[in-house]
Amino acid sequence: MIVLTNDDGFNAPGLRALREEVSKIADVVLVAPETEQSAVGHAITLSLPLKVRKVVEQGEFIGYAINGTPADCVKMAISVLLDDPPEMVISGINQGGNLGTCVIYSGTASAATEAAIMGVPALAVSLDSFTVQDFSFAASFVRQLVPTVRKKGLPEGVSLNINVPAVSKEKIQGVKVTRQGKSRVIEKFHKRTDPRDNTYYWMAGEMVLSESEEETDCEMVNENYVSITPIHYDLTHYPMLETLKEWDIEY
């Protein structure tokens, strides 16, 4: 059984396109947030109960919608909802790329990371556009990749962060194994006033490429390559360990 999840919500077209393709080669079950949970990162729900809604469409059980975060959904799928652990978790297909520092904020990537923490191989998949909704190539690419992941496996704690350019298959230049880039979204806060004359701010922004090294995820997707980045939840900066030990830190 393969668990499909996302951060765009249970009815998101990217998740449904993924289900349509992956179900051709495996049994799948959707375990996804009831509503959109974009950019919640690796948040989990501690102060509220998690409610699980069993979803049946056209007489067929397709999965569970949960009033929680993507990481909640993965935890529930593996620990509670399935009789046996899934063979894989696939998170996506996200509307919008998860590239560079955006991976830190991504609920899509965090769902895959949570699966890796729990010992289940996982993929996070994103289409690099907030407007294009043709997920057909991205979904087909994942379907073709799944058998390879099954055969080769992934190292402990590692998931694959996959970003697909939002262009036709004919314009895809190939597949690149990449590093996470350093590019980030440059935010802008639009100041507005509500009908009661209260000031509020609406955040917007765009990704600005600032890569100094070749073959990062941002650069390759920008050149119309599918990017595959192995990511890990260990955030330790190892070169700093010995330096930090030499600091004279008082207590």
In short:
This protein has 251 residues and is α/β, with parallel strands linked by helices. It has helices at 13-22, 70-81, 102-105, 107-117, 136-152, 217-222, 239-245; strands at 2-5, 28-33, 52-57, 60-66, 88-95, 122-127, 158-164, 174-177, 184-193, 199-208, 225-232.
Can you walk through the features of this model?
It contains seven helices and eleven strands. It is α/β, with parallel strands linked by helices and 251 residues long. A nine-stranded mixed sheet has the order 3-4-2-1-5-6-7-11-8, sandwiched between helices. Strands 9-10 form a two-stranded antiparallel ribbon. Strand 6 (122-127), helix 5 (136-152) and strand 7 (158-164) form a beta-alpha-beta unit. Helix 1 crosses helix 5 (136-152) and helix 2 runs parallel beside helix 4 (107-117). The longest helix is centred in the middle third of the chain and has 17 residues, at 136-152. It is globular, with a radius of gyration of 19 Å. The termini are far apart. The model has no long low-confidence stretch (mean pLDDT 93).
